[in-house]
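Recall the central idea of this unit: under ordinary conditions, the amino acid sequence of a chain determines the structure it adopts. In this exercise we apply that idea directly, starting from the sequence alone.
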Amino acid sequence: MGEAKVSFPVESRKFMRSRVPVLTLLALMFIPFIGGLFMFILKDPEMALRLGIITTKAQLAGGTADWPSYLGLLAQAISVGGLIVFGFVTSWVFGREYSDRTITDLLALPVSRTAIVLSKFLLVFLWSLFLSLLVFGAGLLIGRAVDIPGFSAGLVTQGFSVYLVCAVLTILLSSPVALFASIGRGYLSPLGFVIFTMMLAQIVAVTGYGHLFPWAVPALASGAAGGGTAALGAISVVIVLLTSIAGLYGTIFWWNHADQS
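Accordingly, the structure predicted from this sequence is:
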């Protein structure tokens, strides 16, 4: 634990000096702005008629211009967009050591490999959670600016609880990405894994077994499948947790026992 306290500040400095924080922030900031744009279009029928295809997309994504639809849209977007962005963060944090050929120098430091891995995972979790909270906060400001009808503190609290569950579940699914980044020694393998799991999640969800496939669970929790959180059972959460733990311990095992030269 003491070694992790030493390693974490170093990992944080490397991360914050890179372009990844800015890139991931800009990427996820599209969520509240696009959601606000959909709500703005749906509020004005005359403008909706003039915009045509954009209106159709807005109706598919948001349905009606109210806060339940808007908050649901934010939760769905973080469930899908988060898989990409959080996966990218994880790919960079673990894969850069191999791509930049700093892995041997890193492992030569008087810090255990387990502490290094845990520090990287903590960095990924905290940054991803920070981004998620920032997106929701920006979403609230944009929703108020657009003047979406039906606002209430209770509704926002309920929407935030669903959103937070979706965000955390999505973040937990980043650990297998770290394992693929370590095994693949770079960025391509983990990013390919992210794309593959997203595509497979869509297919499995259509078959009705999405609640048993970890990468489809956040979308179910957001209500993207139409059933809201009611479609999410305890078994789904357990599957996500087991997948996350497997990725965590698999990465630790790889860093401790695989040839890193």
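The mean pLDDT is 86.
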